[in-house]
Write a structure and sequence with these properties.
The protein has 180 residues and is of the alpha+beta class. The protein has a single domain, classed as Beta-Lactamase (2-Layer Sandwich). Helix content is 48%, strand content 20%.
């Protein structure tokens, strides 16, 4: 399954269904139609194109974010991941392993840390998590803004070429601009 299908599934899961209040504010001709038919008519004819356009806009925004992340010196792979499902919404680069599998595994790391913080009654947000390997740094930046809650950025750096402090600084700045 490719990245765009994953992102569409995530987007649809996040999307709220139209309420009858919203429909009541629309054209008067909808008031005489049963509610179950009313929602279908509005969804497929009135909003369908807008949803597809929003999904495409989100995909281009995520693709641009991945390009910017990969421009960090020493970066070999990057992904934007939904930590509740482990699904990579966007990914790029070639770190020498499957980024999709790594994204799913690191979503377990983020979820476990959030559960532990809740158990300890720590009332703070995770900024980032660093995993140091022999030849790589793995940075996980948890996105805490309203437009990207439930996501994290996963960045793989080659230890030989990367400046860890500069990479963390650039990742933090780029992560602020990622919204869904």
């Amino acid at each position: 399954m490719n990245r765009s299908r994953h992102a569409r599934r995530w987007w649809k899961r996040q999307k709220k269904y139209l309420s009858t209040e919203v429909l009541a504010n629309e054209d008067e001709s909808f008031r005489n139609v049963p509610v179950h038919l009313e929602a279908r008519a509005v969804y497929f004819t009135h909003i369908g194109d807008d949803e597809k356009e929003k999904e495409e806009q989100i995909m281009s925004t995520l693709d641009e974010s991945i390009k910017q992340l990969l421009s960090i010196e020493g970066a070999t792979g990057a992904a934007v991941v939904d930590y509740s499902s482990g699904m990579a919404l966007a990914q790029g680069g070639n770190p020498g392993f499957d980024l999709g599998v790594a994204a799913a595994g690191n979503s377990n790391v983020v979820s476990a840390k959030l559960r532990t913080m809740a158990d300890l009654h720590v009332d703070s947000d995770i900024e980032d998590i660093l995993i140091t390997l022999g030849s790589q740094y793995h940075l996980i930046n948890v996105l805490n803004s309203g437009g990207s809650k439930g996501l994290f950025v996963y960045l793989v750096l080659d230890r030989t070429y990367a400046n860890l402090a500069l990479a963390r600084h650039k990742l933090s700045n780029l992560a602020k601009g990622i919204t869904i």
